[in-house]
Design a protein that fits this description.
single chain, 107 residues, mainly beta, Jelly Rolls, seven-stranded antiparallel β-sheet, 7 strands
Length: 107
């Protein structure tokens, strides 16, 4: 998928999350997100469950009470209503599947 490759290349020049909308239909969104090592994606509050899958690198996925290290090809169901952050450990690209009512904020 060229979008994922484009994000991977763009990570070398960006200190902010790179977000690309891939798909939107029937209330579902599919996003590809890139995080450079050390870049933080914060204040994300899913209103409904979503799913995340890492396709490159590693991320730390943090809720109010837990932290998970996700590596390439790991996937994870995002818990509802939990304030969390996602931090790039190694330059990372991941896919996020969300319901239409899911709120996505970047601080």
């Amino acid at each position: 998928m060229l979008v994922l490759n484009d994000i991977s290349v763009a990570l070398t020049k960006s200190d902010k999350p790179i977000i690309k909308h891939i798909y939107y239909k029937d209330g579902k969104k599919l996003l590809a997100i890139g995080l450079r090592s050390g870049t933080e994606f914060t204040d994300y509050i899913p209103l409904l469950q979503g799913k995340i899958m890492v396709v490159q690198g590693e991320i730390d996925f943090n809720t109010e009470t837990n932290s998970f290290r996700l590596e390439c090809f790991d996937s994870f169901i995002i818990p509802e209503g939990k304030i969390l952050s996602i931090v790039g450990v190694f330059d990372a690209v991941f896919i996020l599947l969300l319901e239409e009512t899911t709120k996505l904020e970047i601080a």
